[in-house]
# Entry
Amino acid sequence: MIEASPGYETNRARISLALSEFTVPLLSRIYQALDGDKVAAIVLHAVAHRNVEAWLAEQNNPEGVRQDPARHTAVMRPCNALSTAVSCALPRETVRRKVALLIRRGYIDRAANGHLYLTPTVGDGFQEMTARLVEGLLATAKRLDALLADRPTSLGPLRLD
# Structure
């Protein structure tokens, strides 16, 4: 348990600061990527997670199949507006509006039976953002590891670049 770590009680405020060095840029980038629509971001991420979680959980499944227009829905687990609303604890009508927006933006498709799927190219515009987020997460994890072990670590200014 984290609470049993030597530095947890001593460094709780520093831990919180280290987390904000990751979470504030994360939220800011998501906000910017979807023109300030945080609820659309939640819906997109929920659909994405549902679609690819089973396929990508198996290490031998190649990621590239998801980008093949002829095969991507065959490897994805479908969802719909209702299941997305339930999983996100959002009103169903709100999710339906956000789904319509995400379809117009080309991020998701709706099959004839109402199932929602990521488009094969949805990630193309997010590659740089994802790489920067991974770098930030790894740096944060190192800081947290040091703080939990009660080792000094640098905490820097908040960077949104």
Q: What stands out?
A: The longest strand covers residues 108-110. Residues 12-33 form the longest helix (22 residues). The helical segments are 12-33, 38-57, 72-75, 81-88, 92-104, 127-148. The CA atoms of residues 22 and 136 lie 6 Å apart.
